[in-house]
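_Backbone structure tokens_
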Amino acid sequence: MSPVPEHPSGAKEPKAKTVPPVRFGGIQPRKGEATRERILAIAEASVLAKGFGATSIDEVIAEAGLTKSGFFYHFRDKNELAREMLRRYVASDEAVFDAAFDRGRDLADDPLQAFLIGLKLLADVMHDLPSGHPGCLVASVCYQERLFDREVCEINRQAVERWNSRFLGYLQDIAAATPPREPVDLDDLAHMLSGVLEGGIILGKVLGKPDELERQILTFRLLVRALFSRP
């Protein structure tokens, strides 16, 4: 690992954009797996662009260059497509969180500094998206939950609960080492970060500001630093 400049507080600061790219294994997928992945990617792009209800199996089949039998070999129906698409999306999000916050812990022993570094790296990932974040599948499922079966909605709920639990764990480690300067419910603060991530995506799309999510993450970072920094 190359040396990292010391932060004025004594913690190590990374250079910008050092989060490694998210990769899902080094082995090339077999043909059937590659076809399945292509279907999921096409379906996700369509759902994020116009919603699940407006995304038809026929258009996914046409875009993927498949026959109907080829599609149904991989997915029994639209609900199974939705389940696997959501699982894939959530796994990708969690891989990004792992990369950013694990890197933060590698670079700083202090829980606060590690979390601040992780947030900065997460903001850098959002900065590198040329047209802003394409949208959130979790939000899409939430807004159109009547279109999905119970299992899809449950996958969605569990994903958000895992995010909240992850962020709460980081905050509890920080509070154990450095109590907050003002009374704060750590659960609420963890939920706030989930809200920042989801809300930043929505604000960026509505306002036409590709950097909105990055800015919201950095503003939350300032709040955490002010709340937990030693006097």
